[in-house]
Amino acid sequence: MQELHDAPLAPLTTFRLGGPATRLVTATTDAEVIEAVREADATDTPLLLIGGGSNLVIGDKGFEGTALVIATKGVELDGTTLELAAGEVWTDAVARTVEAGLAGIECLAGIPGSAGATPIQNVGAYGQEVSSTITEVIAYDRGSGETVVIPNADCAFSYRHSRFKSDPDRYVVLRVRFRLEDADGLSAPIRYAETARVLGVEAGERVPLTAARETVLRLRAGKGMVLDPEDHDTWSAGSFFTNPILTAEQFAAFRARVEERLGKGVEPPAYPAGEGHTKTSAAWLIDKAGFTKGYGTGPARISTKHTLALTNRGAATTEDLLALAREVVEGVHAAFGITLVNEPVTVGVSL
């Protein structure tokens, strides 16, 4: 294992923000990951797990404890079964499955980060979520001190959530297993309206896998959601807020606020989200509350390509970012009575 002290963490995050860690350890095998975690637990040392750093907001003061970079490698593809080590680059893994002619995660192309983070957040985009293809998660259970295999049914997956996210100090994901589909080179049915429109097909139709992946990559790039060190719109965590899920009563009150603010006949985005619940669009809320693309005058601003991304224009601090996030949250609540929830994990800070 590589070990550094007073090590900068900002370069390990897509925001490029945050202070140093007291100690930074890089583990390249499952055994090294477990060893580092056990050592931290035995000495009551605070532990921060870092994969691709695409979902982290680290405070300017940094992290007092051990930051553990999970850099494990390993891809096993057997028929339609895929196993990924936690440290594998997610975008590379998606590309490999498309090259192998397997469907199920092709619309998750371009999402930054590591494979081990995908079950934690139940990563999803463009009509797909990893929960629909994950069969098992292999994790180190810090409670029992053992490596466990957790089947999909026990992962408590829901929208951008899981058992691992609800109990973040218990499990360390080591490997993730997926079951994909061999559809003779075709994608899974296209579920997302924008993707179907660009592809020129109806929702539910299949298209060649490469076409699905390339279309998603183009759509993401157009919104600043594909990492590019030269493009400050990608110095972000992607979508900073989750889409609100409202009860019938909350949605009725929300519609009334929309009508009051924007006029009769204006209908907010609404998508089924389980019995008695409706999901609406955080991006729409942000835009209609007056926070348009490029909003801001400081070093942290809303992306010029997508209202849902908060960005570091190159000289921001974490406090600059949080000030902007708080302004957006307060503005949306004042306009529509909905409190947005941040998607990235905050370390040493909060909204």
Automatic annotation (TrEMBL):
Biological or metabolic pathway of the protein: Cell wall biogenesis; peptidoglycan biosynthesis
Catalytic activity: UDP-N-acetyl-alpha-D-muramate + NADP(+) = UDP-N-acetyl-3-O-(1-carboxyvinyl)-alpha-D-glucosamine + NADPH + H(+)
Entry EC number(s): 1.3.1.98
GO BP, sorted A to Z: cell division; cell wall organization; peptidoglycan biosynthetic process; regulation of cell shape
Any Pfam family matching the protein: MurB_C
Cofactor list: FAD
Active site residues per record: 160, 239 (proton donor), 343
Enzyme class name: oxidoreductase
GO cellular component: cytosol
GO MF annotation terms: FAD binding; UDP-N-acetylmuramate dehydrogenase activity
Subcellular location per the Swiss-Prot or TrEMBL entry: Cytoplasm
Domain FAD-binding PCMH-type: 17-183
Keyword tRNA-binding (UniProt): no
Keywords, ordered alphabetically: Cell cycle, Cell division, Cell shape, Cell wall biogenesis/degradation, Cytoplasm, FAD, Flavoprotein, NADP, Oxidoreductase, Peptidoglycan synthesis
Similarity remark: Belongs to the MurB family.
Protein task: Cell wall formation.
Protein name: UDP-N-acetylenolpyruvoylglucosamine reductase
Gene transcribed to yield this protein: murB
